[in-house]
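Data's thin. Show one?
=====
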Amino acid sequence: MRVAVLADTHLRRGIDGLSARARQLIEAADVVLHAGDVTSRSTLDSLAEVAPLHAVLGNNDVELVGLLPVARVVELADVRVAMIHDSGPRAGRAARLRRQFPTADVVVFGHSHIPWNEEGLDGQLLFNPGSPTQRRAQPVHTVGELELVDGTVAASRIVTV
């Protein structure tokens, strides 16, 4: 299963503000995960039209309060994927996320706009796709891609868009 992973899109009017490469990755995905700061119902609906969508509430998602959960766990290809927008400070992140999501194989998060693809505690993958629209201090815009096969993460990568 191919999973497109987004966070911090900060788009107001659908996904037209994404680069052609970002839209291509989303369109090729079997499912899309969005780790918050979608910012509009229009963008949420546009993503859901492309592929099945799972999203969580970000700190800038005031329009989506009551519609999206703060955190969630979904099972995709027998892989348990937890999602939250703000994972907290880097120091202690791996232990904190392991405590918060003890059964998750992968924890997807956003908020910092800093791409992150590293193993946490006990083999738990910690994955932040960065942002496809707001680099902040990062050199490039990014999205994430996961390949999930029979209960395993076959590949995880940050893709420049």
About this structure: The two ends are 21 Å apart (CA to CA). Residues 31 and 52 are 5 Å apart (CA to CA). The chain is about 15% helix and 30% strand. Residues 41-50 form the longest helix (10 residues).
